[in-house]
Amino acid sequence: MEASNYYPHELEEYIRRHTTPEDDVLYELNRHTHLTEYHPRMLCGQMQGKFLELLCKMANPSRVLEIGTFTGYSAICIARGLSEHGHLHTIEINDEITQQTLDFFSKAGVGHRITLHVGDALDIVPALDEVFDMVFIDGDKREYPQYLYCSLPKLRAGGFLVADNVLWGGKVIDPKADDQYTLAVRQFNDQVAQNEDLEKVLVPLRDGLIIARKVR
Ligand SMILES: C[S@@+](CC[C@H](N)C(=O)[O-])C[C@H]1O[C@@H](n2cnc3c(N)ncnc32)[C@H](O)[C@@H]1O
């Protein structure tokens, strides 16, 4: 797939060559997304996908929540990082992409490990009768503060919160950027930073990932 523009092209290629390649299913999903979706760059891609998979293999969560499935790339990566009894609940508001997503989950051999909820995460998360070991936030950036508010009570003490796009193309430090997306991402980052129940690191991976552990 083409370069993501987060790094200079040659560096991107170098990173790619030193990361486990996509298998045929992820390659096909990546290609399919680029051919059929208006905003294919929302898909996390090879490097971040492998990062999520390895993060799951390290933290070994049993129950994972993802907000923002899109075409299912990150969900497949997360599910592949789970142990045999692990399960991912992933939520997508756009019902037009759900059947193809379910087909890719099956093709990837992880359909049995994923429950896809179709609807608004802000309604679905509070209604889920689950305690999660990991939460991955990757939905509408304007809703990040609300995702934090509704998902933190569902995260067990010792569990991990991961959120994507927290640098928002660098706009978080641009004093002229005052659009709804940037304001919400800044608010989210500040809420995480100020929350003493979370130990955290903002990793400048692609568009920025926050990784936080709920201490209590
Ligand atoms: C950045 S994309 C997710 C990319 C995906 N995690 C991946 O890496 O392949 C964000 C997705 O969140 C969905 N979304 C936006 N608002 C939502 C909400 N309130 N509840 C659930 N999904 C939402 C969008 O429709 C979009 O598909």
List keywords for this structure.
7-stranded mixed sheet; Rossmann fold; 216 residues; alpha/beta; binds S-adenosylmethionine; 8 helices; globular
Shape summary: globular
Give the overall average pLDDT.
96
User: What is the number of domains?
Assistant: 1
Largest sheet: 7 strands, mixed
Structural class: alpha/beta
**Which strand order does the major sheet show?**
3-2-1-4-5-7-6
CATH class: Alpha Beta
What is the CATH superfamily label? Answer: Vaccinia Virus protein VP39
Task: Describe it.
With 216 residues, the protein is α/β, with parallel strands linked by helices. It contains 8 helices and 7 strands, in the order αααβαβαβαβαβαββ. It is 40% helix and 20% strand. It has a 7-stranded mixed beta sheet, with helices on both faces. Helix 7 links the parallel strand 4 and strand 5. Helix 3 packs parallel to helix 4 and helix 6 runs parallel beside helix 7. The model has no long low-confidence stretch (mean pLDDT 96).
What is shown here, in short?
With 216 residues, the chain is an alpha/beta fold. It contains 8 helices and 7 strands. The protein has one domain (47-214): Vaccinia Virus protein VP39 (Rossmann fold), CATH 3.40.50.
How are the SSEs ordered, and which strands pair?
Elements: H1 9-17, H2 24-36, H3 45-59, E1 63-67, H4 73-81, E2 87-92, H5 98-107, E3 114-118, H6 121-127, E4 132-137, H7 144-151, E5 155-164, H8 180-194, E6 198-203, E7 209-214
Parallel strand pairs: 1-2, 1-4, 2-3, 4-5
Antiparallel strand pairs: 5-7, 6-7
Helix pairs in contact: 3-4, 6-7
The structure holds S-adenosylmethionine.
